[in-house]
Design a protein that fits this description.
With 452 residues, this protein is mainly beta. The chain has a single domain, classed as Neuraminidase. It has six helices and 29 strands. The strands form seven sheets. A five-stranded mixed β-sheet has the order 1-26-25-24-23. The protein starts with a helix and ends with a strand. The protein binds calcium ion (CA) (4 copies). One calcium ion (CA) binds next to strand 25. One calcium ion (CA) binds next to strand 5.
Length: 452
Amino acid sequence: MANSSLHFRILNIFLYNKRYSYYILFIFVLGSLVCDYQINAIDETNTNDIFPISLSEKLNQNNDSRIINYPNSNITNLTNNNEDSIYGQIEAFENYVYVVWQESVTKSLPEHNYDIFFIKSEDQGKTFGMPINLSNNTEFSEHPQITVSKNGLFIIWGDTVNPNNKEIMFTKSLDNGKTFSKAINISNNSKNSYNQEISASDEKVYVVWRESDQNIADGNDSIMFKSSIDGGNTFNNSIELINNTNDAFPKIKSYGNYVYIVSNNENKKNSGLFFVKSSDKGNNFDEIIKLSDESRSGESQIAVNQNEVLVVSSGFLLKNISNIYYVKSNDNGSTFTDPKTISEKTIDYNNAKEHNKFEEFINNPLNVEVTNNNLSYLVWQDTTIPSQNQDILLLLNNQTDTNNTKLFNLSNNRSISECPSIAISNNNIYVIWEDFILGNHEILFANIPLEI
Ligand SMILES: [Ca+2]
Ligand SMILES: [Ca+2]
Ligand SMILES: [Ca+2]
Ligand SMILES: [Ca+2]
């Protein structure tokens, strides 16, 4: 899952500078085509003649099979309301599909309150139940993250107690999302605690976040870690894993007793992608390893299975990385390969024509997500040139036959499609993202059979 800094910044401007919000929005419009489309974009059914045709559509019309426009009829709008529904995250376990997101609750006071909502399917995404409001408070609730193990369903989000103090809230469900425990504050300090992520391995639950002290100059943020070894009933004390960071998006995954954390650091004194691991449930951590330099690392994601650890990275709003990179470990994160591009993996590098064609689709990748320990299923948000639209691309990377590798445009519309999240279970690939449809954001859901 991904924390996109785009919404983070816009929503905070709305929250704390209400008087000037329209003026600031105007500056955003001037400064960014992305935001321009975010404000003006409407459902493509009304805009056939307004927007230029995207490259993906052009190539599709030219019978180029490299990219496939996924049918809009197979997409479900999970929210479908007039509220601002954003930052969805998805998990799947057996036949269950779980989705969390952040949504404005304009009926309650104060104005600009957001809450965290949860919805589930028990039939592999065919039908979904009624949403549950997990936060249901007056604080600004944002950026939910979800993880599932056989021991439960674990969810965190951020609550803004005051402009200089965000906190990380935690709740769990032991009955497949029917009921949830009372939310507890697991950061619980006076600093700004945010960009949270969560991972569970059986009864072990791990949380990582970025922490800023308003009294200390920019570039001195910390990456914090907190663990529970009893299914989230109690948590150990927070540990500072990495210090002197800037613009960090820490990510976490666990397997057995191993815990893996990766984070970008944009602090010029020591920038790049960094990795640190524990082999004993987060009690002790090894030395920090640098995985790649600044030019090949932005926001990352991590996936693990047995002894394999895979890290992929793309850019983020304030940092343009024009490719998707990955590094891999086959020894529980002790050593890693050098960074390679996804297209090096996908297409025979000697086949320059095919290679270049593939690279055309990777323009300004954001929010890349990976589901397992190989590169079979990758989803990200990218700019479709020349329309400057944002779409959700899904790469199904056939590991043994690159001729059967497929690239889908899941959103394939003229509105800004962003912040994808992916999960796999029981021969289904589930992807959600947010889209600006008919004047407000919605969480859209695609269910793609594995054998497609
Ligand atoms: Ca909505
Ligand atoms: Ca709230
Ligand atoms: Ca805090
Ligand atoms: Ca789009």
